[in-house]
């Protein structure tokens, strides 16, 4: 049932089901919340499941900052086959097989893809090349290159390695892993690159995002649950969980509200800082530059 009037104000942590785009989820939340002012902090491919952070009303102004936070995934990589999309949704382009691939070789390949690396995003992606989406260029049969970009893989941990037979009879190896990474990392590109390094080809067969910044699956809700009871994390709680906190006195709060740049709290961080007044109200997101505050978004 559509809710009338002003929608709730905060974050909704969704456990996205497979087969839904991030835009599909936003459309549903607009209906559940009764407002069009809804957005998401970082997309998930339709095949993927798990944590999708949705902002409602004023909380949409947090999303650009939340999108830059660290993310965690549970992934299954299939070695022995390559696809056009680097995941299971794309057409198979090569079936080299993975017979004889040792666990030690997999661990060595994973180690090469851990830390600060240069990653070429998957071609079937929303990356823009000269103003045009990469996936559109692929559909039109264009030949093009995507420049590598820096990403950080904090954790790439292999949990299980299994032998399997694919539908076309190819003997493959499935690798279950946990990946913790910076914003902008393509997990399917990690699968592709691991397969390339091992000479087998590789693609992603399952992906579940288990965390975005401080928001994990333990606080996520299914679309069915949210349609029945819309659970919203209040914007103040959301900001306090995601960003360093600065509690100011009444005079500092008044000055910040008037756009005055104050002496910063010297928290030693380049992250946005959440500012709260003496009553615990969330006032603003700021950044600290050269010892002074600069407002990024004002909420009160």
Give a brief description.
With 300 residues, the chain is an alpha+beta fold. It folds into 3 domains: 10-67 and 214-234, Pseudouridine synthase; 71-212, Pseudouridine synthase, CATH 3.30.2350; 243-298, Archaeosine Trna-guanine Transglycosylase, Chain: A, domain 4.
Task: Give a verbal description of the structure.
The chain has 300 residues and is α+β, with helices and mostly antiparallel strands. It folds into three domains: 10-67 and 214-234, 2-Layer Sandwich (Pseudouridine synthase), CATH 3.30.2350; 71-212, Pseudouridine synthase (2-Layer Sandwich); 243-298, Roll (Archaeosine Trna-guanine Transglycosylase, Chain: A, domain 4), CATH 2.30.130. The protein has helices at 22-33, 63-66, 103-112, 134-139, 187-198, 223-228, 235-242, 250-257, and strands spanning 10-16, 38-40, 49-56, 71-79, 82-83, 92-94, 115-119, 128-129, 132-133, 149-165, 171-181, 202-212, 215-216, 233-234, 245-247, 273-276, 282-289, 292-298. Strand 2 and strand 3 form a beta hairpin. The longest helix is centred in the N-terminal third of the chain and has 12 residues, at 22-33. Residues 243-299 form the tRNA pseudouridine synthase II TruB subfamily 2 C-terminal domain.
């Amino acid at each position: 049932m559509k809710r009338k009037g002003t929608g709730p104000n905060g974050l909704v942590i969704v456990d996205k089901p497979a087969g839904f785009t991030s835009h599909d989820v936003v459309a549903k939340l607009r209906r559940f919340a009764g407002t069009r002012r809804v957005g998401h902090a970082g997309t998930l491919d339709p095949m993927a499941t798990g944590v999708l952070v949705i902002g409602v009303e004023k909380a949409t102004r947090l999303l650009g900052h939340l999108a830059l936070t660290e993310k965690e995934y549970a992934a299954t990589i299939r070695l022995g086959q390559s696809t056009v999309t680097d995941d299971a949704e794309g057409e198979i382009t090569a079936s080299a097989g993975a017979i004889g691939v040792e666990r030690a070789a997999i661990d060595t390949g994973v180690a090469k893809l851990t830390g600060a690396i240069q990653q070429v995003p998957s071609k079937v992606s929303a990356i823009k090349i000269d103003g045009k989406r990469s996936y559109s260029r692929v559909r039109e049969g264009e030949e093009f290159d995507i420049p590598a970009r820096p990403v950080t893989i904090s954790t790439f941990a292999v949990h299980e390695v299994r032998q399997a037979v694919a539908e076309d009879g190819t003997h493959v190896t499935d690798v279950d892993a946990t990946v913790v990474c910076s914003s902008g990392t393509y997990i399917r590109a990690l699968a592709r690159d691991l397969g390339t390094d091992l000479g087998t080809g590789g693609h992603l067969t399952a992906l579940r995002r288990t965390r975005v910044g401080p928001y994990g699956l333990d606080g996520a809700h299914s679309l069915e649950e949210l349609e029945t009871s819309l659970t919203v994390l209040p914007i103040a709680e959301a900001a306090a969980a995601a960003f360093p906190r600065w509690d100011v006195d009444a005079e500092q709060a008044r000055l910040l509200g008037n756009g005055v740049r104050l002496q910063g709290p010297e928290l030693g961080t380049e992250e946005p800082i959440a500012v709260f007044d003496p009553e615990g109200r969330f006032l603003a997101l700021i950044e600290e530059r050269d010892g002074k505050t600069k407002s990024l978004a004002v909420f009160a």
